[in-house]
Amino acid sequence: MNIEKKVLDTIVKYKLFGKKERVFVALSGGKDSTSILYILKKLGYNVEGLMIDLHLGEWSKIHLRNMEEFCSSLKIPFHVVDLKKELGQGICFIKAVLKKKKNLTGCTVCGIIKRWILNKHSKKLGASVLVTGHNLDDEVQNVLMNFLKGNIMLGANSAPSTGTKQSGFVQRVKPLFFIPEDEIRKYSLSKKFKINYDKCPCAFETYRTDTRAWLKVLDLSAKQKLKIVNNFQKVAPKLRSRRVAEGFEIKKCSVCGEPATGIVCNACKIFESFRDDS
Ligand code: AMP
Ligand code: ZN
């Protein structure tokens, strides 16, 4: 089955969104988010692009320019959120301070900030749903990482669709959830998208890169990856029920008003750390 048909099947089966909804695609400038934007446009969905300028030197400039051109060529509205305007600093400064002060390394800081900005701005811009380019390999990594950390509860939200408007989240959806990374790479290359295939220059020596390397050694087939993710899909709803039974609920952050699991959201805890250093 081709990738476009697989995406359509996932959208229909999991009722991700309809043709009239405003579907925002979070664009990193890489192959996954570019491919899903292209496929959704081709399938006739009402798509818009949303990108955060992380100010990661030349890397960000190239990705921004590529996405600007890509969206313009397909007549897709393109929105950019400037991290420096939003938080006063670029991602490198923020990561350096967090490493020094809280020994937080890897992609955690970047992930929390990206999620906070994407949710806040897609909500403000009137998005019905927010699409990300997460694929089958990302999901296999998540299952394994959470298991190795001894906390499979971290995977409770694992699904092609997570977050609800009631809890302050724009519905986040992953139409590439069941599609292996190499299939997306092949698709992107075959379409000759003018994009950059390099890895993020900041993503080194993280738990995820180690897990990815380990999985590469195992050389799992697409069928085996699907089996892992599908099996975990049987467990995830049980984890969500257990979390609710234990009193878990989404609150409003007392500082920014965005969704939080505690009194203050994780993003505001990060902002507090680096604002003292600004
Ligand atoms: P990553 O965490 O870099 O693997 O990215 C996962 C997904 O998050 C991508 O497929 C995009 O949908 C989204 N994303 C990553 N970086 C950005 C960015 N700078 N702006 C908007 N969305 C992003
Ligand atoms: Zn907050």
Explain this structure:
- This protein is 51% helix and 10% strand.
- It has helices at 3-13, 31-42, 57-73, 83-87, 91-102, 108-124, 136-148, 181-190, 207-218, 222-245, 266-275, and strands spanning 23-26, 47-53, 78-82, 129-131, 161-162, 171-173, 251-252, 259-260.
- Helix 2 packs across helix 8, helix 5 crosses helix 11 (266-275) and helix 7 packs across helix 10 (222-245).
- It is globular.
- The relative contact order is 0.15.
Structure described in brief:
With 278 residues, this protein is of the alpha/beta class.
* Uncertain runs: none
- Largest sheet at a glance? 6 strands, mixed
Order of helices and strands: HEHEHEHHHEHEEHHHEEH
According to DSSP, the number of beta strands is: 8
Rg is 18 Å
The fraction of residues in strands falls at: 5-15%
- Summed up, the helix count is 11
The molecules bound to the chains, other than polymers, are: adenosine monophosphate, zinc ion
Q: Tell me, briefly, the overall form.
A: globular
Key attributes of the depicted protein:
alpha/beta; binds adenosine monophosphate
